Amino acid sequence: MAQDIYDKIMMLAKRRGFIYPSFEIYGGSAGFYDYGPLGSRIKENIENLWRKFYLLKDICVEINTPTITLFEVLEASGHVEEFTDLTIDCKKCKMSYKLESIISDNTKIEQAIKEDKIKCPTCGDHLKNPYPVNLMFSTKIGIGNSRDAFLRPETAQGIFTDFHLLYRYAREKLPFGVIQLGKGYRNEVSPRQGIIRLREFSMAEAEVFFDPKDKTHPNFEYVKDKEILLFDNEKEIKISLERAIKNKVVNNQALAYYMYLTQDFLLTAGVDPKKFRFRKHASDELAHYATECWDAELFSKRFGWIECVGIADRSAYDIQSHIDSSGVDMYAVRKYDKPKIVEVKKIIPKMKALGPLFKDKAGKIKILLETYKIKDDKEINLNIDGVTIKIPEKCYEIVQIKEKISGDKYVPHVIEPSYGIDRILYCILEHSYSEKKKKDEEYRILKLNQIIAPIKTGVFPLLNDERLNKISKEIDRNLRNNGISTYYDESGTIGRRYARMDEIGTPYCITIDHDSINDNSVTIRDRDTTKQIRIKIDKIVEHIKDQILNYS
Amino acid sequence: MAQDIYDKIMMLAKRRGFIYPSFEIYGGSAGFYDYGPLGSRIKENIENLWRKFYLLKDICVEINTPTITLFEVLEASGHVEEFTDLTIDCKKCKMSYKLESIISDNTKIEQAIKEDKIKCPTCGDHLKNPYPVNLMFSTKIGIGNSRDAFLRPETAQGIFTDFHLLYRYAREKLPFGVIQLGKGYRNEVSPRQGIIRLREFSMAEAEVFFDPKDKTHPNFEYVKDKEILLFDNEKEIKISLERAIKNKVVNNQALAYYMYLTQDFLLTAGVDPKKFRFRKHASDELAHYATECWDAELFSKRFGWIECVGIADRSAYDIQSHIDSSGVDMYAVRKYDKPKIVEVKKIIPKMKALGPLFKDKAGKIKILLETYKIKDDKEINLNIDGVTIKIPEKCYEIVQIKEKISGDKYVPHVIEPSYGIDRILYCILEHSYSEKKKKDEEYRILKLNQIIAPIKTGVFPLLNDERLNKISKEIDRNLRNNGISTYYDESGTIGRRYARMDEIGTPYCITIDHDSINDNSVTIRDRDTTKQIRIKIDKIVEHIKDQILNYS
């Protein structure tokens, strides 16, 4: 069977230590992959570059929240209800299928169900009665009185449930953004696309909070003339950000700004600009929380256009849901020029009553009461450690007080760029892969750029000579002490050693030869031009650092 | 109630954005914490420093494997059987307790059970019948024909199950090490020690593979005279590495080397040397896989000595278990000077028979057959996708062939330094915390060092003046473009702004005043000495970089 590019890359990836199928010694499990020594470097390089764009260049801070997420959080966010795939079972061959994977054209699923014409792709049997399956991995926290939980389907909810704390961190000024990198989980019914459809994947998400009345971005001015390539499901257009907003192709500045930031990031990371575009979600494609969404798609020869980043306007959906479900005040405030004095109802918790009644839970209850949004109904029910507790009236007082109000409360809107790191990593490998024949042998070069390359320099003593080895090891040590990853190699012909480095994308190779002993110089070879320059040993670190920096 | 240092730190941590209790708006859940904007920076700084020690200074590479782990892996590793806590339930108040948390002295548990004298710490009722509870979070992969899985209790197993691939990456030379950073999970029965005992935690582990006949480390020579502080459960001794081995206080060079690396890392990260020691595990304390283990313990005023790193000799336990359970050849080879020719039995898979019989599983079976270790019994059973499949004899041939053997096979031994990042982070906060009275107000300084500090520089225009703000923003932007985290602040008195930065551990504050307009200079204040120096604007980046580098 002829190998296509995916097969070639995955074989190279396994042989050289980029990507391994997980649990292979126990027969493996679809939807799980390991990053080997080189893959994990690329992944970290991509993530660190991403952080540079969002933490240092943009207006974001970073947080880390657990992957295990309480049922309550994901019920409020709509995932318990909506995060499902329509699934169908074959009674004959006992396989289960995601309906979308049998009927490739999304728009024809409804029709196929109605016409009752679905066939098992394995045994050809007639399939009936599709049903929704929730795609979250579930687990339980604690034993006995345990609580239901899921592995998070997105990192975003950890950010939303901390909004009131993060708003305080941002000193109550919008817009500001919060990023999170980490694992996301999706218990796919039957994943069949290798590393493109994982059950456990690496995400990088930004949730940027805006006043719904003002979706402008403070850095927009710097980028408004930049062009992006859009595909509206019919044709491609190249358009400047400013024009895209003026023509209402993109709804607001914030969306347009993050589309450009995404494009800039992906191209800097090494995506082929000719294999990159934005595509707008049709209304029936939108996730349950989104009002508008643009995907950054990357082209793969095996898979076609792949959704690698989604940039969605989640509007007020999530924060509003958590306010409604938790009762906690998570509003932002549009400040008046001068504060107003108004009469408000406020809850004053009485610790003397709460303490004896609720013991170690009293402190939690006090915090929840103080931020509780008073409704018309008189009863106050709080959710403590998974149990709904009615708070007796003697435990608090509702007082009418005069309060200085500094502004109007509102629910912020969220613009969310959400990145699938594994897909981006695979596409960068595919876009960087090249092969040619050299002396009748397949010669492979991964043209990874200086930032993404897992190893920055090979270090080779030309001959196996103690003096050369000693100098080489010192150079290697010095590079590493300066934070530059190296691969020290003294075996095989120099051509063979270059070939090994070309195949894993190492941009520079340093060779130490007999002249090095006398002139304190070495040869540095460039992977892409194969040109060699001679350079003083004490200038190596500076030279390599400059090369990497110049690129970024 | 008087606050102790833990309360003070956790309040500061919440107020300023280091650490938040998770899911607080839904009443929270014990054993889960979020890292806020500042906490996540500290965590990343600690992890990156750790990588420097293990990836660049030592002989390790890094991998990333899934947190969801197949049942088979954790059954083989002994975790299904052994990763348990003895638990006891109270029938009256419906609480469950880890026995160790009721009876603080480990050695008295057996006796207490025998004497039947255990009382409920909540209601005082008599407790009976303790039983072991497995501490892994369990879940299922897929629907219908689903497979049992757990959230990993340690990152190590992902490394062990890839050993044969990693050994190839290391070009079949020992010693070499493999690190992994990421989440670990432990479904504690009733965690009560805040951030010290988490159900989901951040780990950094290294598994370093040695020939059991040669547990020397190539870098030992550089550090043999360094001293470590040991506590043998009776007294503390300060001893050089070389002497510790000579006197058989520590069993081998590899263990001693990683103890020193651990000490060096922790002190560089900002642990107080007076609150640091190594303690040896008593034999009844050892995990099921360990033959010797030293804990690096850090002292906390609230918790006493806390185990933050375990440095264990796991011997051949794990690799041997996976060889036995999977049948895959995961041996290392001690090479002969010259290869020998020997007669061996080998399995030749017959794809013509495997293909029609096993369809899409045939490829996996072929790979497993080729590495299958032939036993005396004739039947070959393979575990494919969770199902044990008997392979009919017609599908393979066992041939007696002459093979060139390059050396003796052996199961490598593993030395494992395993770090609990959250505990280390908390201890660094506690060791860095200081407070004093200033004008009758509590004044707090976090003396975090330059590497660990979440924000490296505050940037302050002295007065709210458009020209000063403009220069300040340019300085801020320039620092960020050079990878230096900043906090831009134009509000409040300069004293108030210094105080905000002191409280979160920012080592430098840059103030831009009216003189800056004319002399292109700014003032840089040092947090610890409060001394100020005047420096040219175009020298700021270099100066700050030097300060951070000099420290590391």
Structure description:
The structure is a homodimer of 552-residue chains. In chain A, the strands form eight sheets. The first copy, chain A, has a nine-stranded mixed beta sheet. The longest helix of chain A has 21 residues, at 37-57. With 552 residues, chain A is an alpha+beta fold. Chain A is built from 19 helices and 28 strands. The first copy, chain A, is globular and about 90 Å long. The mean pLDDT of chain A is 92. The two termini of chain A are 41 Å apart. Chains A and B meet through strand 2, helix 2, strand 4, helix 3 and strand 8 of A and strand 2, helix 2, strand 4, helix 3 and strand 8 of B.
How does the SSE layout of this entry go?
The structure is a homodimer of 552-residue chains.
Chain A lengths: L4 H12 L2 E3 L11 E3 L1 H21 L2 E3 L5 E3 H6 L2 H4 L1 E6 L6 E3 H4 L6 H7 L15 E4 L3 E4 L5 E5 L4 H5 L2 H7 L6 E10 L14 E11 L9 H4 L3 E5 L4 E5 H6 L6 H17 L6 E5 L11 E9 L3 E12 L1 H10 L5 E18 L1 H8 L3 H9 L10 E4 L2 E4 L5 E15 L2 E8 H12 E6 L2 E6 L10 E5 L4 H16 L4 E3 L5 H11 L3 E5 L1 H6 L1 E6 L5 E5 L3 H12 L1
Parallel strand pairs in A: 3-10, 12-14, 24-25, 24-26
Antiparallel strand pairs in A: 1-2, 4-9, 5-6, 5-7, 8-9, 10-11, 11-21, 12-13, 14-15, 15-16, 16-21, 17-20, 18-19, 22-23, 26-27, 27-28
Helix pairs in contact in A: 13-14
